[in-house]
Protein 1
Amino acid sequence: MSYSERLHKVIPGGAHTYSRGDDQYPSNAPQILERGKGAYVWDADGNKFLDYGLGLRSITVGYDNEEISDAAIAEIKKGINLTRASLTELKAAELMISLFPWADMVKFGKNGSTVTTAAIKLARAYTGRKHVALCAEHPFFTYDDWFIGTTPMDKGIPGESKSFSHKFNYNNIESLEKIFAEHPNEISCVILEPTTFHSPCANDKDGFLNKPHCTNCNCGQKNFLHQVKDLCKKNGAVFILDEMITGFRFDLQGAMKLFDIEPDLATFGKGMANGFPLSALIGKKEIMNLGGILEEGAERLFLISTTHGSEMSSLGAFIKTVEVYQKENVTQHIWDYGKKLIEGMNEIAARLGISEYFEVGGYACSPVYFTRDKDKNISLDFRTLFSQEMIKNGVLIPWVALSYAHKEEELVHTLHATLKALEVYKKALNGNIGDYLVGKSIKPVFRKYN
């Protein structure tokens, strides 16, 4: 029995995150991984791959960074999860707030869905309203009803739950104004990511390769994020930024620093502890304190109450991760490496004459590659082909997540693999992709049917 068959026999979907499922990878991808170190992973048969998946973007320093691993192990030796709040828990909370001076309080969790849903709960309690506005272009917020009910995978979600969520479009303030107009005094909050690969700043012309700084441009500090914040204030709604991907990648203090914006609440996870399970909800005291216990006579809100939210190994890893970031200037390295990678991959595509069919964009700290067929339409078949050929050349690249462990040697390896992969890509454009693609094409995660 193969590893894939064994996984599907005991785990629905074959993995605990749909992004790790078989349908997200070409048929020659490793079925199961055994370990990772630096920028590399090994499968159970000892095959080594240069990795750009990086634990679903949760690894930003590198797999098994010794300083961070040792810090986590030291916390394990202290007892890992004590009966009352730990000193490590307090230090981690104070550190998180020190990074974001606009925020007063923090609640830690173990995954992003926990803290985004907690933010929604706070907003509903604070405003006394039920409805939520969320950005349509941002692919994932939570596994809970308020988001999943807006996707094609809405099986099991009551219709009444779905009716409270409304989608608007990024960089289109009119679409959000329309929601407020159609639901006056009903919108509790607006939640969105600061950016994906579109800038909220109209004057950010070179932000794809260089760090954006709205404080240094002439947008008058009125980029799209500021427009959303103003609209929230005008309508009495809570403004929530989800920095699950951008936080600890765009900047140690989040993309909110680069775009000069302060929300009411913000959520973090992924890279904040270099792969150790940790997420965070931070915010202003007037909202966060609804989950407190000190105000006599106040009606209580059950915010987040998790046995393992205070688990010390992840909190110790977070503390050390911040130290490594500051000491090694991790985010600047990620930006610099990403710029070289984007320019190098696009140069190869141009040299082969297929720039209109394969291109790399997005911000340098978080590149995105686009694959198009011979009619120049976005194609999952060609995305599968590119990924398949990269794997043949020792590179696992379902998407592009970067870390401090990606150095010059890894860049050279990646660009060499890209040349080999795009040579096949070009042949498929000029012929029949079925002659080059082995196995099934990858599929969208959010689809109605298997």
Protein 2
Amino acid sequence: MFRRALLATILLTLTALSAGTAWADTLYTMKSHTDSFRVAGETQPAKDATVKIWAAGDRLRRDEDGQSMILRLDTNRLYMVDHADKTYSEITLPIDLRKMMPKGSEAMADQIAAGMKVTVQVTPRDETKKISQWNAKRYDVNVQSAMGMKIATTLWVSKDVEGFAPLNKLAATMASLQPGSGEWSKQLEKIDGFPVLTESRVDALGAQFGTREELVSVETKAAPSGTYDLPAGYKAQAYNPIAGMSQ
């Protein structure tokens, strides 16, 4: 659970770093591909998906494969939503593992925080090329967690994306999800533009696989009512660090 959540958070942070147009709603549509891989003796098939990201100032929502991540900086909340099960987990920002753990588990919280610590290295390159209609510059991003997860990413970043306006506070908030990752947000501030193409090699959970995400379109328009709100009738599910340690 922790390593899965950490991977999802890193990918969302890379998006959050550059999404948003002041307070207008912007819809980013992206195509995503994940290679097949084996984990725990089982083969996970390759997967293609459409990713839709709505952004407006201090609100952001990412939809993919029946799940949503809704970030609300105005209330300092992150919601992890599963539409198939009609459940959600609410996480107060910034995360305080000691408050989320059962009473008397402070030492375990410290151990978990140490294991979740990540280091990030961002290296801008001189290489440029055109991705679709956007002129892009290359950045290499290497992420490693104390638990052993490694993500090597090539970002093709463009300032040509309509409505681009970096939201550094949003990126810093997403980084705060991982205790001890203050340096992460500082490194990500070096990325100036929107990632129109992201290619990653992931080593996590004993598996190695590649992912690819490419921007298809950008539209500035009003988001549907309730886009940044929890769906009505969904059941709350506690975010439990201890229960997730073995997943």
